[in-house]
Write a structure and sequence with these properties.
By secondary structure, the protein is an alpha+beta fold. The chain is 25% helix and 27% strand. It has seven helices and 13 strands. The strands form three sheets. Strands 6-7-8-9-12-13 form a six-stranded mixed beta sheet. A five-stranded mixed beta sheet has the order 1-2-3-4-5, with helices on one face. The N and C termini lie far apart (41 Å).
Length: 212
Amino acid sequence: MSFKIGIIPVTAFQQNCALAWDDETKIGAVIDPGGDVPYITEQITKLGLSITEIFLTHGHIDHAGGAMELAEKLDVRIIGPGIEDKFLLDGLAEQGARYGIKARDCTPDRWLRAGDVIKLGGADFEVRHCPGHTPGHMVFLNKALQFGILGDVLFKGSVGRTDFGDYGDHAQLIASIKRELLVLPDSFGFLCGHGPGSTIGAERETNPYLNE
């Protein structure tokens, strides 16, 4: 197994849609296809990948807005996020109208729960629940690879937004990070939903939101 990960920035939000695949078999998955579906499919074709599933970390439009369209094009299932984000996925078309982004409401084929194990690029990733940015936000961790996909929970030098009216919760987000992520080794690397990745050690030492 030769795990590979590729980043495809999509939409005006420059969200890090990701492709994860086994470089030997070319079998892979898409994580958080927020939009620009023709561009995503073009990259999949260029890499010669066979996509088997789409995974969502959470229900915001910049992460899930293109999921239904891409699932239909590729004839694959949508998995995740946690069922707590159903209200967000049910309102994607409305969110899109506000931001000028083409989107469709999304109905996953399966919801994720903490402790589930999913297959990304031939590797097993553990699912952990990290609410705060959204109620059903999930992160995907592989301890053998020392690598995780964290969506909008933790960023290089920052954390996910929580100013979302009745469902964002900053204290809950920080608690999620400390409980699920800061227990990981300093060398553990991660891809986040926007911008460059980092390591747990770098964020533990320098991230101002974790040292409040």
